[in-house]
Amino acid sequence: MTGKPEERRAVKVSKYLAKHLRHQPERLGITLDENGWVAIDTLLRATAAHGFGLTRAELDHVVTINDKQRFTIDGDRIRAAQGHTVAVDLDLPLATPPAYLYHGTVARNLDAIRAEGLRPMRRHHVHLSADRETATRVGARRGRPVVLPVDAAAMHGAGLVFRVSANGVWLTDSVPTRYIRFRG
């Protein structure tokens, strides 16, 4: 990993938090409430007890600088903005999407997407981006990115629901193939 030591540490902390606030809170001995929140003091004590000491100032810094705004702090609580595999209800309001949203993936997933549409897989929702650039970055995490436009206006018109997380990620239960614009 390149970058300054403090940048590397911030990435490490962000990944550690994502792992435990989205997927494995029990590994730290913490319990998320029904909406995914945990008291910051509880989280900090748990990280220290598991050999990953973290101060409140460092936590605040990582939450603030995270380019994807993966975490939300509300007073003395923190949660992951979305992407959970553990059962939580983020209690996000319904939202009217823009005409098109975008999904970043890689070519090896296209046959399955053509056959089944977009499914949440291990997560609770399909994640969509409001712009091609963000979807490109998402897809690039797994290889050469492919960006699929999604006719969100048509989906919404057909009664499918959307929510948008605090960091601008659009969430829906699934995207049927008929709403995905494949090229070629």
TrEMBL record:
<dbReference type="GO" id="GO:0003950">
    <property type="term" value="F:NAD+ poly-ADP-ribosyltransferase activity"/>
</dbReference>
<dbReference type="GO" id="GO:0006388">
    <property type="term" value="P:tRNA splicing, via endonucleolytic cleavage and ligation"/>
</dbReference>
<comment type="similarity">
    <text>Belongs to the KptA/TPT1 family.</text>
</comment>
<comment type="function">
    <text>Removes the 2'-phosphate from RNA via an intermediate in which the phosphate is ADP-ribosylated by NAD followed by a presumed transesterification to release the RNA and generate ADP-ribose 1''-2''-cyclic phosphate (APPR&gt;P). May function as an ADP-ribosylase.</text>
</comment>
<dbReference type="InterPro" id="IPR002745">
    <property type="entry name" value="Ptrans_KptA/Tpt1"/>
</dbReference>
<dbReference type="GO" id="GO:0000215">
    <property type="term" value="F:tRNA 2'-phosphotransferase activity"/>
</dbReference>
<dbReference type="Pfam" id="PF01885">
    <property type="entry name" value="PTS_2-RNA"/>
</dbReference>
<protein>
    <recommendedName>
        <fullName>Probable RNA 2'-phosphotransferase</fullName>
        <ecNumber>2.7.1.-</ecNumber>
    </recommendedName>
</protein>
<keyword id="KW-0520">NAD</keyword>
<dbReference type="InterPro" id="IPR042080">
    <property type="entry name" value="RNA_2'-PTrans_N"/>
</dbReference>
<dbReference type="InterPro" id="IPR042081">
    <property type="entry name" value="RNA_2'-PTrans_C"/>
</dbReference>
<keyword id="KW-0808">Transferase</keyword>
<dbReference type="InterPro" id="IPR022928">
    <property type="entry name" value="RNA_2'-PTrans_KptA"/>
</dbReference>
